[in-house]
Amino acid sequence: MSSAKNQKWVYMVAALLVGAGVGYLIVSGLSQNSMYFLNVSEALAMPADKLTQARLFGSVSEEGLVKDEQSLGVDFYVLDKDNPLDAIYVQYRGAVPDTFKPGVEVILEGAFMEGGRDFKATTLLTKCPSKYEKNDQGQMRPPGYSS
Amino acid sequence: MHSISFAALFLSMLAGVGVVSYAGVKALKDDFSTVGLLEKGQIVLTIVVLCVSAVLLYALAVRDFSYVYVRDYTDALLPMFYAITAFWAGQNGSFLFWYLGVAVMGWCMIYTPGYARLDERTKVFFWLFFFLVQLFFLFALTGPSNPFLRLDPVPADGRGLNPLLQHPGMIIHPPLLFLGYAGFTVPCCLALASRLSGNGYEWLNLARNWVILSWILLTSGIILGAWWAYLELGWGGYWAWDPVENSSLVPWLSATAFIHTAIVGRTRKSLLRTNVFLVSLTLLLCFFATFVVRSGLIDSVHAFGGSRMGIPLLVFMVVSLALTLYVCLVPREDDPKDLDDFVSRPGMLFLSAWLFLFLALIIFFGILWPVISSIWSANPVGLEAGFYNRVCLPLFVFLALVMPFCPWLGQKGGIKDKGSVMAIIAVGLGIAGVLYALGYQKPLALMAAAASAMIMVSVFLVFVREASLRTFKPAWGAYGVHLGVALMVLGVAFSGPYKIEQNAVLHTGETMTVGEYTFTYEGLRHDHDHPAMNVHEARLVASRDGKVVGIMTPQKRLYHSFSQSSFAEVSVIPSLGSEIYATLLGFDEQDTASVRVSINPLVNWIWIGGTLSCLLAFFCWRKIEHP
Fold it and tell me: What is the ipTM of this complex?
């Protein structure tokens, strides 16, 4: 029906169209669904105005932990894994994973509250147990899982 | 036995290096008489790895805690079944398992008719590549990932297997993935070897069964993982777009793209380089998946922990990629073909392959985004699940919309049966209209549901209109896989966007309402008699319009060997329509319980479709004649 040369054009136009569609999706996704992935120390070092949406990595502090009786929310300090003196106060409402307790590593998603350095978390995940690793003291890291 | 096993692996490695060097030097001088030696080498390597695997299995079975590995993943109370499957619970064991898979498949390869059809030159190249992969594993197993480390003094008991991993889905999921990864080694080495020896397209036929088998293993592994997450993790979902999940999807996408370009390669004798590159890329991405899981480069909810395998894996991948590119780009006199019409069956296969590769690329870069973004950003920027839903789901839906029309396009263009195509379009529009009227108005889900219906009708019509296909088994396979995909598309289209979920704190006797269902909480039962755990079980009576539809008993379990943690055991009322799913989140001394209940429409069709795809794919198997 058409020459090979014409087909080449058809393929190129099709590639361009698909590519443009994908490109648009990626750009819009990047602008709306990307967030900083930060350790606690990194988050504290950032200027407050740049911190809106973020995913925080850290471990749960024993002090200041106020757990809702029914496991439907918890307020606590999240500590930096390497510098336990760096802490951020977290307020979380929602189902608290079984494995949440002082010492576990958590992943938080949410935003910093206006003006302050407190973090309002919308998701709270504890790390998954695919493997146990010993920590530096030779103790077991407690198991956890994504909730 | 620790040191003997280690020594056996170490000697395997030395022998492997010796054989590869010898055969490599001879091959450089155009001497390909080393085939026999290479085959014998493969047999010896396989026997060694079989023996050391037996040693580790035995140690796990008798709980010989003098092995670090046995201590880390079992304890005296663990049932035998789970103790044996702890073989692949940790990194060192899973590398051994993966290598075992590669070695055994290499051994099997020697006796296949496809192998017998190869010339000496191709055979030598094949084994050279195959040994290189195995040497990587032997290096890992005798260095950074040694499963035979000895523990002194021997502890009285082990640390036990995590309760969450004590589930049939989790027991079968990892070995299926590893066997799938292992399986792609054969077609990849075959492709590279054939390309180097200028053997044209023959390898596509010879590699076909290996590719199908590996694809089935990989697919079933991924689906089982999702099923396990749904039933065991109690968060009500099955796919969270976590880096570790994504990294197993990337090689699957590339393998699926390859399966589609391979059809064009076989039937139209074109796209040779593309095919060689894609099958090699698939194997590389299998290693990439392991790299993501093991390197600790990306923060994931799956805490595998940083291990010492990161750098060796990275080096291996870079070297292999360079080798692959070299082999693909080396000019060979294969006559480049004219492109087929775009609107033809090969054209659409090509388009599908593009889409799969786009998806693979997006997810690949998505996984690495925190690393890539650190080039220009002081702090790493990552992508949330919403990114993948926004970018990948439309592409999957587009693929599903292309699917029903492919069978009706001619090899050289044109539509074969306009009536059937019109019927398919009519069904799609009809279904979309009905669903819209019923209130299912989310555009993407609506299109996916219509696409799913069109695929089913299309498959049905193909067998009605083309009598010759009814007795042709590979057609059953190919269309059957797509029928399974249609069911999965349907399941995802509804279970994601139309899921209803609610949390509530309930006192005994109180009720909660979720969607059309009412749940009455009748109190907690505490069972302290179980030898391994304490069980706390809530009783929820589910009813609809005043009629009881089922009793749900979500549990919270406190395992004695994991005393600091509790584990939720989900309760479901299974249904092919709306499945009801309940998790006990917590409770207090007065037996007040907090529960989460969700209604998941059509979720089980994902597992049914997935199972159908994997099983029917076996029909694609084709017998290869001995030469």
Answer: 0.76
